[in-house]
Structures are given as structure tokens and as C-alpha cells.
Design a protein that fits this description.
The complex is a heterodimer of chains A (about 140) and B (about 80). Chain A contains four helices and no strands. Chain A has helices spanning about 20-40, 45-75, 75-105, 120-140. In chain A, helix 3 packs across helix 4. The longest helix of chain A is centred in the middle third of the chain and has 30 residues, at about 75-105. Chain B is mainly alpha-helical. Chain B has one domain (about 1-60): 434 Repressor (Amino-terminal Domain) (Orthogonal Bundle), CATH 1.10.260.40. Chain B has four helices and two strands. In chain B, strands 1-2 form a two-stranded antiparallel sheet. The longest helix of chain B has 11 residues, at about 40-50. Classes of the chains: A mainly alpha (about 140), B mainly alpha (about 80). At the A-B interface, helix 3 of A face helix 2, helix 3 and helix 4 of B.
């Protein structure tokens, strides 16, 4: 029989004791993003340094996501079920949204939804939050 | 799945928070189980049974089964 290890969760179902890790990872991601953008915009560093500066923010973002995945893994079984349902909705919904905007954009019926690839997360984040809201209401 | 978790908890005078702490789950999970909106996993169902000191079949019942009144004999027969 597995042992559940967490007790107190916040309104998002994340164990409160995981908050500190999430805050640190978030701060590191934000700091590294500003640091990279500042250096990349100020001067024209060599290609190796530009690669490093460009890769730093996504790496920090990956660490932040790993910390959040750890927090979810340590949540209790209902919170994990809610996250699964939210993500189960978000992924196909993001694909449908991307296809919808793609076709409409191709016909010139909507302005370009994405300025560049960095905006892709917008398609992924909104369906996740909608899925999370619906799943949490379901078990309220 | 039907259950008698709320009945057994209130019999003991425990709050949802207190039961959640005993089970190491969130209060939301206890609430969802009590309201029969969420069916717990088998390990959690066993922990609930252990917390109440009752066999699991006296707490959880399949859909359509008759849930006996407090103190009555237990039956899994459909109505």
C-alpha cells in the first residue's frame, strides 16, 4: 500500500511545503530571462555566448516545470487526478486551437495569432487553466 | 460508489480536516469522497477503513446497493 505524504495543499492543489522550491525556481527563471535579454540586446556577443544566453531561459523554465511536476507528484491522489484531467483537456484543446487559428489565418480571416514561436505557450496555458478550473469544480 | 464516510466521521466527532490529517490527504479529497464525487483508490479506501476501525465492505458499497441505516446489518444486495 502506498503512503501519501502530503497533508496541506493550496488552492491549486500544490503541497504548501513545495512552495519554497517553486518560488526559487520561478525567481531563477525570471532573473535569467531578464539577464539573457539584457545581454543579448545590449551588444553583439559572439555566437557561442549568444547560444548560451538563448538557452539559459528555456533551461530555467524546464527546471521550473520539473519542480512543479515534483509538487504535483507529491500531492494526494485527488489532486493528481485533477491535474491529469486538466492536462488531458489542455493538450487536445491546444491542438484544436492551433489548427483553428492556422486555418483562419491562412485564409486571412484573423490577424497573425503568433508573432513568433515564443508565443506558443499562450495556446498551451489557457486550455490548461480552463481544464484545471473545470476539473476542480467537478470534485468540489 | 456509495460510502458511509461522512456518517462514520461525524459519529466520532471528527472534522474533515482531522480525518484528512489522519489519512494524509487534503480536506478537499475527504469532502469529494464524502459527497461521492470521487471514488478513492484501493489503498486510500483501506486507510479510511483502518482509520474507522471497520472492514472496508462496511464503508463502501457498489452503486445500486442498499446502504443500511446506522447500526443496522450491512447488505450488498441491490434494492
Amino acid at each position: 500500500m502506498s503512503v501519501e505524504r502530503n497533508v496541506e495543499v493550496d488552492s491549486c492543489g500544490v503541497p504548501r511545503r513545495e512552495h519554497r522550491r517553486i518560488y526559487i525556481a520561478s525567481a531563477a527563471f525570471i532573473a535569467l530571462t531578464f539577464f539573457s535579454l539584457a545581454l543579448l540586446g545590449r551588444e553583439a556577443p559572439g555566437i557561442p555566448l549568444r547560444v548560451v544566453l538563448a538557452v539559459l531561459p528555456p533551461l530555467a523554465f524546464a527546471v521550473l516545470l520539473a519542480v512543479m511536476a515534483r509538487a504535483i507528484a507529491r500531492s494526494d491522489e485527488l489532486q493528481r487526478q485533477i491535474q491529469l484531467e486538466a492536462l488531458g483537456f489542455a493538450y487536445p484543446a491546444a491542438l484544436v486551437l492551433a489548427a483553428l487559428f492556422g486555418f483562419l489565418q491562412r485564409e486571412g480571416l484573423v490577424p497573425h495569432a503568433l508573432r513568433d514561436l515564443r508565443d506558443v505557450w499562450l495556446f498551451l496555458a489557457w486550455p490548461y487553466f480552463i481544464g484545471l478550473y473545470v476539473a476542480r469544480r467537478k470534485y468540489r | 460508489m456509495k460510502n458511509r464516510v461522512r456518517e462514520l466521521r461525524t459519529e466520532r466527532g471528527w472534522s474533515q480536516e482531522q480525518l484528512a490529517a489522519r489519512l494524509n490527504v487534503s480536506r478537499q479529497t475527504v469532502n469529494a469522497v464524502e459527497r461521492e464525487k470521487y471514488d478513492p483508490s484501493l489503498p486510500l479506501a483501506f486507510k479510511i477503513a483502518q482509520a474507522f476501525g471497520r472492514p472496508i465492505e462496511e464503508i463502501f458499497f457498489p452503486d445500486g446497493a442498499h446502504v443500511p441505516a446506522r447500526g443496522a446489518g450491512r447488505s450488498l444486495l441491490p434494492r
